[in-house]
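Researcher: Here's the sequence for the chain we discussed earlier.
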Amino acid sequence: MIEYDLNDPNISPASPAYVFVRYDTGPAGGWRLISKDAVRGNGFDIVEQPGRKQIVWWGTGQTGISDIDRLRLRVRGIQMARVPAGRFVMMSLPGMGRDESIDIDPDPDLPLFYMARYETTIAMYVDYLNECGGEAGWNRRMANSSLCGIVRNGDSKFAVAPGRADYPVTYVSWYDASGFLKWCGLRLPSEAEWEKAYRGGIYLDGDETRKIRNPNPERTFPWGDEKADLGGLYRCNCDGDVDGFPRTAPVGSFEKFSSPYGVCDMAGNVAEWTLDWYTTPYHVGLDGFRVMRGGSWLEAPAACDAVTGATQFPIKESSIIGFRGVRRP
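Model: Thanks. This is the structure I predict for it:
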């Protein structure tokens, strides 16, 4: 039995916590993720209410645990946003219209999924690096405290630069992002998932209920169609330092202008890796470009819209690229 307290009063069915548990069996074991199939209780995977939680872990005999007194556990949570099942208006094409792996139009009718409310932060990523040893996933440019802020100490441990814990992690390749998400049991969003979380479905409560109609299902930005800097009020972190932040901003700084599901910073701050490919005749069969969405702190306000995107090789590490995860039940 694993017990813990979830004290965040903001946790709700619309904004649940994704809770995952990792365990270590001893010096030679290494940290591992407990599978969803191996647990029961009210405190694992998608947790919709705060309070005292219990997890019953089945099948521990198959994990190689010989001495229960040496077992170490770490319970972590990521705040998510619920995106109900149903249709939405997809304005872009997978792979920006150049995905040669498919020959049909995308299905705008998606099942229920959950998306991280905030971009992955430096503090979260440092936790991952320290548990996994940091052999992969870190590069020296991350030490720049104005563009990222992950310091490598003499003992090969990592620390967050002062004041940078809540900023989005940058200089992460597509492979780095995938590694972090595999560590916690999530994955990158597809372009369709990303766009639906950005715009909202035709019905915000989903097609099964159909009580809350989206007032603007073809919106240009998460908050609507108003320009990102209309009237001198910046609705996202973009345009260099004109918006009040010299580069990136702490995640959630523009929470007032979130998506219809409460997903923050989908416009600006850092461009976000997606799962989808962008291929050309020169890259068929190779690990070619991957698509990013949402614009960044460096973009002009108009380039942070729902359709405009960019592509990069998956090995690219940049001060304008970050990511967030998704989970399907």
